Structure of alcohol dehydrogenase:
Amino acid sequence: MKAAVLYEFDPSLTSPQYVRYEEVPDPRIEKTTDVIVRIGGAGVCRTDLHIVEGIWRDKANVQLPYIMGHENAGWVEEVGSGVEGIKVGDPVICHPLVTSGHCLACRRGDDMHATDSKFPGINTNGGYAEYLLTGARSLIKLPASLTPKDVAPYTDAGLTAYRAAKKASRHLLPGEYAVVIGVGGLGHIGVQVLAALCAAEIIAVDRSDMALGLAKECGAHHLVKSDRTEVDQILALTGGRGAEAVIDFVGEGDAVAKGLAMTRNGGFYYIVGYGGKVEIPTIEMITSEKTIVGNLVGTYPELVELMALADRGLVKLATREYRLEQANEALHDLHHGKVKGRAVLIP
């Protein structure tokens, strides 16, 4: 099969070629519960750029060369002898983690904390290829209204945004405010989920006019340009109190400090993006009673819920399509902020 293969790290992201498009061996069924999916679309994520930088080399024990791509959807190509309920030809979306289902975390539905798991595209070969090896319990059949290339980024970008926005929606009331910092690939989905699940006023914050325009299309009530005055603008919009919930899809640079400053006393700061540090004096934590919440992808049931929203047209992905052989172009466009919404590779 053809695949876009990562051979070496590039900490500065200056190489004209991050991956090589070449012929590699097809994946093979190894366990009775294995499934091979013919890729219909593979999302291009900022995490892929972090992998190229080498940030994940110790965290996930990445062994080069390997194939990136952790946002995948397609059609079932082959199934193991123990697979039931899924047949060849079924259109499916892949939960990003492949787990056995036997550990306590799995039985509780928290697959992302499983003691025995694989994460295609992170610590094993992913979907920047024609075929992907995954597991039967990771697959969700797609309704007729949804096609693989249009939904692939939901498996991480969508699912992570959904998990954070769902948490926030549980305590947001009419007349309250939710701030979304960074309304690109993940954030534009977060805005739509908030709009679907609660009645709070949504404030979108970004430095990109293109991203802010997308946020408006997705249902944001207020747009704030990130230009060093965004904290003051948020305070002005919220009557000086700050927002009841702030979802930070950036998580690096000065976004963290600003996000905490935008959060009202007793409010919730949800951190999704990474690369920076959360630094707050303990006395500030005590006197403000702010809650800081980390967010890691999402569960299988949450991906089912997100597909239900997509099926009803309440959440839509903005995507830009690239051929698999254009993987380097897609990664560079993402790095330089040229992608509106989410890039998707199509074999």
About this structure: The two ends are 10 Å apart (CA to CA). The domain at 2-156+317-346 is CATH 3.90.180.10 (Quinone Oxidoreductase; Chain A, domain 1). The mean pLDDT is 95. The first strand starts at residue 2 and ends at 6.
